[in-house]
Design brief:
The protein has 185 residues and is of the alpha/beta class. Helices cover 29% and strands 24% of the residues.
Length: 185
């Protein structure tokens, strides 16, 4: 006789990615969700949602996550509707491009926007992206950290990433998940 065991229900997580145009939000999401990278840039218009299904976290458990990865468009014309996208978030990833310091200082704008519209606690991390194209890494990385808004300078929550070379993408997501999912005791 054939019988089905009780299906494992996935815990649902909503992670939004915020930052200026062309900083790599879509590329980070695609790398994590589908393990792919596209060279050609296409701006996100409004919002794009990808999923990562059956992601096991914490490692070594049978807890499966369904992670919704919200790629939020940065264009000013979406400023009015963006607050609707923030409803129910579990975490926010603030993304900047290491090769454009203005995108790092602009994270203050994104932090203010999210704080204005989300009144409950959520996990967060910073992805300073495109680390693979940096020549003088040590001095530039230190400078990038100094440019971050004070509230985003918690070292354990800042990740130097490259979606293209798949550098620290998993670590970024595990860093987020560790803040919002507690390991069983």
């Amino acid at each position: 006789m054939f019988s089905l065991s009780r299906p494992i229900r996935a815990k649902q997580i909503k992670v939004i990615f915020l930052g200026d145009d062309q900083v790599g939000k879509t590329s980070i999401i695609r790398r994590f969700a589908d393990d792919m990278f596209r060279e050609k840039y296409r701006p996100t218009l409004g919002v794009q949602v990808l999923t990562k299904e059956n992601y096991i976290y914490p490692p070594g458990t049978d807890q499966r996550l369904l992670i919704y990865l919200w790629d939020i468009g940065a264009q000013n014309l979406y400023e009015v509707v963006r607050p609707d996208y923030y409803v129910g978030i579990s975490a926010a990833v603030f993304v900047a491009d290491l090769t454009h310091s203005e995108s790092i200082t602009n994270l203050e704008y994104w932090l203010k926007e999210i704080k204005q519209h989300v009144r409950y606690r959520y996990g967060w991390a910073v992805a300073l992206n495109k680390v693979d194209v940096i020549e003088n890494k040590n001095s530039l990385l230190k400078r990038a950290l100094r440019l971050l808004p004070d509230e985003l300078q918690e070292e354990s929550k800042v990740f130097f990433t490259s979606a293209k070379k798949n550098i620290n993408i998993q670590e970024l997501m595990v860093g987020i998940l560790s803040q919002i999912i507690k390991a069983p005791e």
